[in-house]
Design brief:
Elements (H helix, E strand, L loop, with lengths): L2 H31 L4 H29 L1 H19 L5 H28 L4 H23 L3 H14 L1 H4 L10 H4 L3 H7 L1 H27 L4 H25 L5 H18 L3 H27 L4 H27 L3 H31 L1
Helix pairs in contact: 1-2, 1-4, 1-5, 1-10, 2-3, 2-4, 2-14, 3-4, 3-6, 4-14, 5-11, 10-11, 10-12, 10-13, 10-14, 10-15, 11-13, 12-13, 12-15, 13-14, 14-15
Length: 368
Amino acid sequence: MPVKDRAASYSLSFVVSVLNVLQAPLLSIYAYGLGIGKVDIGLINGVAPFFYALTAPFSAILSGRLGVRRTIATSLLILFLSYFVLSVSKSPLALTLVNIACISSFALFWPAVEASVSRSGGSVRAFTASWSSGAIAGAFLTAPLFDVDKAWVFKGLGLLSLALLGLSFLVNDSKDGNELMIFTCFSEALRRLYASWLSCFVYAFAQAAVFVFYPVLAEEIYLPPLQVGAVLSALTSTRTATFILYPRLRRMRQHEMVGAFLLTLGLVFLAVIPQMIPSILSATIMGMGAGLLYASALTAVFEQKSTGVYTGLFESFIGLGYGVSPVLGGYVATFSTQIAMIATAVLSFVIILPGLLLRELRITRLAE
């Protein structure tokens, strides 16, 4: 992979990740400031990822037909227009529809970039470090942007999306005419990496509770904006460090089970402990768990030959997790935002446990 192509892919991953991380917290606070209720906030943030889950697999088809460059450029144009419409939207329905467009653009972007990096021999560690570093930057920006007029923030993010178009034309423009044929074999992909898909889902399902409801909880119990930014930064920073150290950590037996446990434990602590230092430590624990689950799943995906199909499914299950969590959590949050976060944590572990145990049993039988 030429240096120019590699730098463009990783740079795009970094900046788009900043936008991705800012989306849910800023939209939640924007909606909350408009007087929109928590159920509606949950729906605004929760409906769009379902479209992400549906759109992501089609990124493989689009990339196969148009090439990665045009697919990425299309996603950035959609994102640019969506941000500007979002800046003038006020009703729950309007915010939901525009958020669907924003999230769908991310769904086109990520599988295309991942497939390009994988086909070109890119590194899992370098790719995850690039987008996760962007997530850290986005988390640091969250608190300062809390006090800025959100309409202007969204317009600024739209202009940034437009500026990225230049970088998109430097990306390795790989095409794979076989993707349409391979795309019909989803059942095989689902069966082969079922535990990885559960890891993707739970990774997003648990984190969505933090990105969507922790800012709302902070508003309810009068936590300082600085604490929200610190918590998100601790989560994303630890997640990035775990990605980088994953080649060593994967040698640890049952590392995915450990990751699921840490993810659950950190989210429970974050929900019940309001003080800043313990909250940051809780987010750190959660970030370690999230990093183990994500890196394990992405490594398994990059090892497959039909990368377009697998990266599409990878992002689809992440989108599904980000979609289900706010919808379920929104209804529970009408009683208590803290209970909604705790319930999400417990359910995350319950969902992933059978898949990990079943795979371990299968590996044990094959070894006999």
